[in-house]
Specification:
The complex is a heterodimer of chains A (about 230) and B (about 525).
Chain A lengths: L8 E5 L3 H13 L3 E5 L2 H10 L4 E5 L7 H8 L7 E6 L3 H9 L4 E5 L3 H15 L8 E3 L2 E4 L4 E4 L2 E2 L4 H12 L4 E3 H9 L7 H15 L9 E4 L3 E4 L2
Parallel strand pairs in A: 1-2, 1-3, 3-4, 4-5
Antiparallel strand pairs in A: 6-7, 7-8, 8-9, 10-12, 11-12
Helix pairs in contact in A: 2-3
Chain B lengths: L1 H8 L13 H22 L8 H15 L2 H19 L11 H49 L4 H16 L1 E8 L5 E3 L9 H13 L3 E2 L11 E7 L2 E10 L8 H64 L5 H33 L7 E3 L1 H15 L5 E5 L7 E3 L1 H18 L5 E9 L5 E7 L31 H11 L3 E6 L5 E8 L10
Parallel strand pairs in B: 7-9
Antiparallel strand pairs in B: 1-2, 1-5, 3-4, 4-5, 6-8, 9-10, 10-12, 11-12
Helix pairs in contact in B: 1-6, 2-3, 2-4, 3-4, 3-5, 4-5, 5-6, 5-8, 6-8, 8-9, 9-12, 10-11, 11-12
The chains are: A alpha/beta (about 230), B alpha+beta (about 525).
Chain lengths: ~230, ~525
């Protein structure tokens, strides 16, 4: 049994009683401490009173849009946020990710999927140790020396390719929207130049993935963005 | 419309200036002619036989009968006989007749002049009637020909107004009673109704009586107002405003107006029948569709729900193998329900018009992978799925989420119908032609398109009779909706060597260059 204090605390925000009960039981059984609220206002108050380690936020709340909750929350809180959306809300999903959410799940979703996403997001909270190289697959990234190797052989990355990789490593587990990556790498004026990103992603995959056509680490969320799962 | 123009050129068919000369003028004319002939006879009587003058009188009476009515001709006959007898036939200034021969001559003259005059006048009147009848028939013929060429009541009203204007040399207007009882002027009216005219029209519509000019009501009005009656119902107003200031309508004109209006009301009646039948048909169709839809939605929803509730009950069974089976059943039923709800949602998004594709560059391979992953999560199948595309496949301009759904639905279709073990080929590429298009296609080795779906396989709620799996028949309809929403086109066809192939074409665009470092 994990000691109480060591267990991560999840704040669940959902207005559907059955979803709340289900999430509560699933998360508690998985070893999380769980707090549950029904409205956006309550969520903001609860997060302000005692910051949770991670937040599970439903986009369709009765009192305010989920995106608005996120915007207000992000002014002072940086805990990872997992969005729950329903089928067909692509635009809301992207808006929520742009507003600072870290990942999303579309209802209905499986328990395993939910727990995997939460684990990935919590892992991201552990700071990247610049001293130790990051490994994924056969690739090793040594951030301190800006050195990338694959099967022990150095991989030649251009400055921007490396910047892209670095961005993904910093935000590993998180869904990065097209707009975010474009703005970070090419500046805010290039936010709409999605093709830059697709072309660079293809290059990065070819250099770092074993099977670039079925990428394992640099995953696509069609119409939304990319996610690094190293 | 040419026929209207050529009628117009001939000026009005039913002339308003065809006013009969007043009877008084006819009598004066009669008297003048007879007096003239008598005066002439008076002077030449000495040079000729007074009997010969009888023939001149007869000529005058016949000539008059061609110009004037029957009564003046009668007067002409009597008057000429008296004048001849009194002034020309001796003894002068006396109605007495000198000898038997003169008496016989005078008597015969009287009979011949009266009969011939009357006969000629009657023939002339008949000829006039004939001509009017012909004019009326011609006008009606033009009208029916013009109306027959129209397809809607709107066109019919336009043609009618044109014909009326030409035939009566007039301006005219039609007002139709709309659902709420308000009179609405037809846009092609040549006679414009202002406040006062509208009031008369309203009055006519509510009292269902003729009014305005040529009637004792609203005599100061410039137009003649007639209600268009369909049985007990006043379906509109016809206003005729002749260009002349003739005070009355001739019988012919009146009859012709009646004929014209009858033709129009006939048209309106046909139109009403047509609309009623159409409405009936649509109603029956939509009711039938709704019933079918409700039946199949109910069936499709109930099946997985039934499985769920039974399986949940059965979970109590202690045997672990049974529990495992039940869990699998629950999983399958849940996925089936999810698919169904998603497709219903997609279809309603399409139909309500809220779907706004977000077109952006996307990597087809990523979309294929996402759809495949979704398919594997949804159901288990035993088909090998291959992906083929050019090595340098360019980015596509599409809504990635919609494209993923499109591929997913097409793949789901393929794995549902293709036999286990057969290959399903997923491909993408650029089709060069007059305009280059990008395409993605899903080809299977299943039974191919069934005969009943060949004509329009993308119609919603239709499923092959041989369908092995449940479903609402929305998958392909959603595919087409999503493709069309992105400005593309989807085709279904035969896969060479057996099976079906669905190909989605999208406009091919080239993205700008990517900056170097």
């Amino acid at each position: 049994m994990i000691p109480e204090a060591a267990r991560a605390e999840v704040l669940v925000v959902d207005d559907e009683i059955q979803i709340r009960r289900l999430l509560g039981s699933v998360l508690e059984e998985a070893g999380y401490r769980v707090r549950i609220v029904e409205t956006g206002q309550a969520a903001l108050a609860e997060a302000a009173a005692r910051p949770p380690d991670i937040i599970v936020l439903d986009l369709g709340l009765p009192d305010m849009p989920g995106v608005e909750v996120l915007r207000q929350l992000r002014k002072w809180n940086h805990a990872p946020v997992l969005i729950l959306s329903v089928f067909g809300e692509e635009n809301n999903k992207v808006a929520a990710l742009d507003a600072g959410a870290d990942d999303y799940l579309t209802k209905p979703f499986g328990e395993n999927e939910l727990l995997a996403r939460l684990r990935a997001l919590l892992r991201r909270m552990q700071p990247v140790d610049d001293g130790h190289p990051l490994c994924f697959g056969s690739v090793e990234v040594d951030s301190s020396r800006r050195l990338v190797t694959r099967h022990g052989q150095p991989v030649k990355l251009t400055a921007r390719e490396y910047a892209l990789l670095h961005l993904f490593i910093v935000h590993r587990g998180k869904v990065l929207t097209h707009r975010f990556v474009l703005s970070e790498l090419w500046g805010p004026k290039s936010e709409a130049q999605t093709h830059y990103l697709h072309v660079y992603m293809t290059r990065l995959r070819q250099k770092l993935e074993e099977e670039p056509d079925t990428p394992k680490f640099f995953q696509t969320e069609p119409g939304v963005g990319y996610r690094f799962t190293g | 419309m040419p026929q209207i123009a050529d009628v117009r050129q001939k000026q009005s068919l039913i002339g308003w200036n065809e006013q009969k000369p007043s009877p008084v003028r006819e009598y004066i004319e009669t008297v003048v002619v007879i007096a003239g002939v008598t005066a002439m006879g008076w002077f030449i009587a000495s040079h000729t036989s007074h009997l010969a003058l009888g023939l001149v009188y007869l000529l005058a009476v016949i000539a008059l009968s061609l110009r004037v009515g029957r009564r003046p001709v009668l007067i002409a006959g009597i008057l000429s006989a008296l004048a001849w007898d009194f002034l020309i036939i001796p003894p002068h200034f006396s109605f007495l007749v000198g000898n038997f021969e003169d008496g016989m001559m005078l008597g015969t003259y009287c009979v011949v002049a009266l009969v011939a005059g009357q006969l000629t006048a009657r023939v002339k009147a008949q000829e006039l009637n004939e001509r009017r009848r012909e004019q009326r028939a011609t006008a009606l013929f033009h009208l029916t020909r013009a109306l027959a060429a129209t397809r809607t009541l709107d066109e019919a009203a336009t043609a009618f107004l044109g014909q009326v204007d030409a035939a009566f040399n007039a301006t005219s207007a039609l007002l139709f009673t709309e659902g709420s009882g308000v009179l609405v002027a037809h846009p092609t009216n040549s006679f414009l109704l202002h406040e006062a005219e509208r009031n008369i029209a309203d009055w006519v519509a509510s009292h269902r009586r003729e009014a305005g000019r040529f009637t004792p009501l609203f005599t100061s009005a410039t137009g003649f107002y007639l209600p268009l009656m369909l049985a007990e119902d006043c379906c509109g107003i016809f206003v005729l405003c002749p260009a002349t200031n003739a005070p009355t309508l001739s019988t012919v004109q009146r009859e012709l107006i009646g004929d014209f209006v009858a033709q129009l009301t006939l048209m309106i009646q046909h139109e009403r029948f047509r609309i009623a039948i159409e409405r009936e048909r649509i109603l029956a169709g939509s009711e039938e569709l709704q019933r079918a839809l409700l039946d199949s939605v109910a069936h499709e929803l109930k099946t997985p729900l039934a499985v769920l509730s039974t399986a949940v009950e059965k979970l109590n069974t202690p045997a672990e193998a049974v529990q495992q089976n039940m869990l699998n059943e629950i999983r399958t039923a849940t996925k089936r329900l999810t698919r169904l709800v998603n497709n219903l949602l997609n279809q309603s998004r399409l139909e309500s018009g809220v779907l706004r594709p977000r077109l952006d560059w996307c990597n087809v391979r990523d979309v294929f992978n996402a759809a495949l992953l979704e398919l594997r999560n949804t159901l288990s199948f035993e088909n090998r799925i291959t992906i083929t595309m050019p090595k340098d496949m360019p980015l596509l301009m599409a809504d990635a989420a919609l494209l993923e759904q499109i591929i997913f639905n097409l793949l789901l279709n393929a794995v549902s119908y293709a036999p286990a073990g057969t290959e399903i080929a997923l491909s993408a590429g650029i089709q060069n032609g007059a305009t280059a298009r990008s395409f993605v296609s899903v080809a299977d080795r299943g039974p191919g398109l069934p005969e009943e779906l060949r004509e329009n396989p993308f119609q919603k709620f239709q499923r092959p009779k041989s369908a092995r799996v449940g479903g609402l028949g929305l998958g392909l309809s959603v595919v087409r909706g999503f493709v069309v929403a992105q400005g593309g086109e989807v085709q279904a066809g035969d896969n060479p060597g057996g099976g079906a192939v669905f190909t989605v074409y999208l406009p091919h665009l080239l993205h700008g260059s990517v900056p170097n470092e």
